[in-house]
Amino acid sequence: MSIPSSSPVTLDDRFARHLPELAVPWRADEPADPRLLVLDEQLAAELDLDPAWLRGPEGVRLLVGVGVPDGANPVAQAYAGHQFGSFVPRLGDGRALLLGELVDAEGHVRDLHLKGSGRTPFARGGDGLAAVGPMLREYVVSRAMHALGIPTTRSLAVVATGRTVRRETPLPGAVLARVASSHLRVGSFQYARATGEPDLLRRLADHAIARHHPDAAGADQPYVALFEAVVAAQASLVARWMLVGFVHGVMNTDNMTISGETIDYGPCAFMEAFDPATVYSSIDRGGRYAYGNQPLVAQWNLARLAESLLPLLHEDQERAVELAEASLAGFPRAYDAAWSAGMRAKLGLPADSDPTALAASTDELSTLLQGGRVDHTSFFRALAVAARGDAEPTRRLFPDPVPIDDWLARWRALGPDADAMDRVNPVYIPRNHLVEEALAAASDGDLKPLDRLLEAVTAPYDERPGLERYAAAAPPDFGAYRTFCGT
Ligand code: AMP
Ligand code: MG
To answer: What does the alpha-carbon distance between residue 382 and residue 391 come to, in Å, rounded to a whole number?
Structure first.
C-alpha cells in the first residue's frame, strides 16, 4: 500500500534505475503491531523530515517500509562478499531493503534503508527478521560513533514489530531504519565483477564516483582515482576506529563501504583493557578481526576491491595489476599518517612534534598499557589531568605505576595541552556492560536506561556530573564479553 501523494517524503530510486541487475524490487513485511521505540530527531531534521510526522501512524508505516510514498521502488540489493576470507558470490540483502534515496537539508543524497523487514530472495536459510536488542544496539553504537566524529551509517529509528523472533529464545522483533550516504560496498563490486558484465561494472563504478568521489570523474584515470579515494577514506576511517578502541568484529568485504562510513554494527564492541588481540565476536575464533588486525584486514579487503576493478583500470591486465598495486601501497602510508596525527592529538602534542620521537613514545605507551591491562578510554582522559599537574588518576590505572612514571615525566616535558586533549579523548563510550544493561531493560519495555546511556554517549567529550558510572570500566565480574552476528 502507498501513502497518498500528500506524503511529505520523496524517495528516488536512482540505484534501482541505474543498476537494475543489483536491485530486486521487494516489499517489507506488514508488522503485527508496530510501535516506535526510538527516533533520532536530530537526524530527522537533517533529512528535512518532521519528527512529529514520523512519530505518527503514517511516519511509523514509512519507518517499517509498508507505507512508502508514490513513486518509491524499494529493492533488496545484490552483493557478494568474502566472509572470514571465503568468497560467497551471492549474499545480498537477506533481511534488508533500500527504500530509496532522499535529499537531505543540505542537498546531499542519502539512502533510507531498513533492516529486519522480512525475508527477501537473498535470505537463504535466514528468517529475514531482527530482534529489538540488536537493532537498538546498532542504534546506540552508531549514534555514539557519529557523536565521536567517526564516519558512520546513521540510525533514524527502531520500531518494535509486535512479532516474535525465534533465536535461542523467543525475542521481540524490530525494524531498524538506517540512513547512509549509500550502501555500496566492496561486495557490490565483487558481485558486479563476478557477473562478467563489463558494462555493469562500469555503471556501478560511475554511480559510485558520482555519489561519493566526484573529483575522480575529472581525473586522467577516473577508475584508478575512484580506487584511491576509497583507499584514502578507509585508511582514515580505520585509523579513527583504532584511536577510539572500536572493534568492528565482522570486517567481511560486504561490510566495507565505498563511502568510508562504518557499516553493520553486529558483533562490534569498544575495547576496555588495551590489548591488540581483543576479539568480541563469538564466531571469530582465529582472531581474524581482532582490534590490532583491523588495518591489515582493511587493506586485504581493498585488495579484493582492486581485483574487482581490474577490467576498468587498464585494457592490459598486467598494467592494471601494477596500477592497482601502486594505489594500494598508499593505504599503509595514509593509515600511518592518520593514526600518528590522531595519536599526537590524543597526547595533546603540537603538530610539529618530531614524528620519530612520537612513534617511539607511542610504542612504549602501548606496551605499558597492554602490560597493565589498562582501560584505554579512561587512560587518555586521565592523562589530561596529568597534563594539568595531577598524575595520580593516571597512576591508579596501573597495577604497578613505576614504569608509567618515567614515561609521564618525558611526555610532560613536551608541554601537552590538556584542553586540546579533552576535545579529542572521549569520557563516555558505549561500554559493553552498560549497552547490555540498557538493551535488556528495553527488551522488557523499560527504555529509561537506554535514554540515559544515549544522553552520555551522544556528548562524549563533555564530562557531566551524575554520569560517573558511564565513564567507568566494566566491573571485574562482567567477564569475557561476547557478541553475536546475524541477530
Ligand atoms: P551480516 O554479517 O550481518 O552483514 O550479514 C551477512 C549476510 O547474511 C547478509 O547477506 C544478510 O542479509 C544475511 N542475513 C543476516 N541475518 C539474516 C536473517 N536473519 N535473515 C536473512 N538474512 C540474514
Ligand atoms: Mg552486512
So the answer is: 8
